[in-house]
């Protein structure tokens, strides 16, 4: 398979790069200065693109690559891949579900604990020597808080399971009710937000879910409510979130994702009720390896005419 051109637009996992290089002709787009010319020069050999959560394959890239057969994404979310264009051109698409579920769900709980118990702020309190001048203030209990989950797919269910271990009543909103689950379903996001203490956003980003967290939802969550976003930045109307936090209309936020990554609204930097992570939901050594193996497994299956391991298209 070493003559097959595999295009990687941005750096991701060193292990993935190394394993792809063993098997394919890996073309690292970020290392070349003249990208457009490079793509033209290699358009006859590039048969696969390996994208990720930030850089997938948009219509323009797909049109540039006439021999493209498969986009194997090093991510579970495939909102950066033009799925319609892929369908139209018969290009297969794969992602990395399941292997990252635990890490992302763990992080959602970590963020909720970090916001309510002020873990980052109290860490700073110790490091800056302030403890010597007096004890840190009281924080807010997590156990027993009502957790609302927006999107009860694989990761949403894993968040629910973990939150249940903290005796948290669980409610959710998703496209359809899942009557087999014992959690309370709300057909409308505003209603879910009005009836929970912590709202966890974990649905896929689509045209329907873009800015699903708007001013009305934020106000429904209210000054004691906490928003946790481990989905995608564009799920949230970010300027509305920032003003709600600045004005005290929202109790706190734990964010792993933002509208224009890696840009993060600087007004949030001063707020102690906000915990900011750099989109690291699945970034553990173990999951990085498992995701990379899945990307490679999908490519090998495709180029050996075997069924794809995790097909999306
Ligand atoms: O954001 C990460 C992913 O989609 O895997």
From TrEMBL:
The keyword NAD applies. Keywords: NAD, NADP, Oxidoreductase. Its EC number is 1.1.1.79. Residues 109-281 form the D-isomer specific 2-hydroxyacid dehydrogenase NAD-binding domain. The keyword Amino-acid biosynthesis does not apply. GO terms for molecular function: glyoxylate reductase (NADPH) activity; hydroxypyruvate reductase [NAD(P)H] activity; NAD binding. This is glyoxylate reductase (NADP(+)). One of its GO terms (biological process) is photorespiration. Belongs to the D-isomer specific 2-hydroxyacid dehydrogenase family. GO terms for cellular component: cytosol. It is an enzyme of class 1 (oxidoreductase). InterPro entries: D-isomer_2-hydroxyacid_DH (IPR050223), D-isomer_2_OHA_DH_cat_dom (IPR006139), D-isomer_DH_CS1 (IPR029752), D-isomer_DH_NAD-bd (IPR006140), NAD(P)-bd_dom_sf (IPR036291). It comes from the Eukaryota. Pfam families: 2-Hacid_dh, 2-Hacid_dh_C. Residues 12-312 form the D-isomer specific 2-hydroxyacid dehydrogenase catalytic domain.
């Amino acid at each position: 398979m070493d003559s097959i051109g595999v295009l990687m637009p941005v750096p991701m996992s060193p292990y993935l790069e190394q394993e792809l290089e063993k098997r394919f002709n890996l073309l690292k787009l970020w290392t070349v200065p003249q990208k457009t010319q490079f793509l033209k020069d290699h358009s006859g050999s590039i048969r696969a693109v390996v994208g990720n959560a930030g850089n997938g394959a948009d219509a323009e890239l797909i049109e540039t690559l006439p021999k493209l057969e498969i986009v194997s994404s090093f991510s579970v979310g495939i909102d950066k891949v033009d799925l319609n264009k892929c369908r139209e051109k018969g290009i297969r698409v794969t992602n990395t579900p399941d292997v990252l579920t635990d890490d992302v769900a763990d992080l959602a709980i970590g963020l909720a604990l970090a916001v309510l118990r002020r873990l980052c702020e109290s860490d700073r309190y110790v490091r800056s020597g302030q403890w010597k001048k007096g004890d840190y203030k009281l924080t807010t209990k997590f156990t027993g808080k009502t957790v609302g989950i927006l999107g009860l797919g694989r990761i949403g269910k894993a968040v629910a399971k973990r939150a249940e271990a903290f005796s948290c009543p669980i409610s959710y909103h998703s496209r359809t009710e899942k009557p087999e689950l014992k959690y309370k379903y709300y057909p409308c996001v505003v209603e879910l937000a009005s009836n929970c203490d912590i709202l966890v956003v974990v649905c896929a980003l689509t045209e329907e879910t873009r800015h699903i967290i708007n001013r009305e939802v934020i106000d429904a969550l209210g000054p004691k409510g906490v928003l946790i976003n481990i989905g995608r930045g564009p799920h949230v109307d970010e300027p509305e979130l920032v003003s709600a936090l600045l004005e005290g209309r929202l109790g706190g936020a734990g964010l792993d994702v933002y509208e224009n990554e890696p840009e993060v609204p600087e007004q949030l930097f001063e707020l102690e009720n906000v915990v900011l992570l750099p989109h690291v939901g699945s970034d553990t050594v173990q999951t990085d390896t498992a995701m990379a193996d899945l990307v490679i497994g999908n490519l090998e299956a495709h180029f050996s005419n075997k069924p794809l391991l995790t097909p999306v298209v």
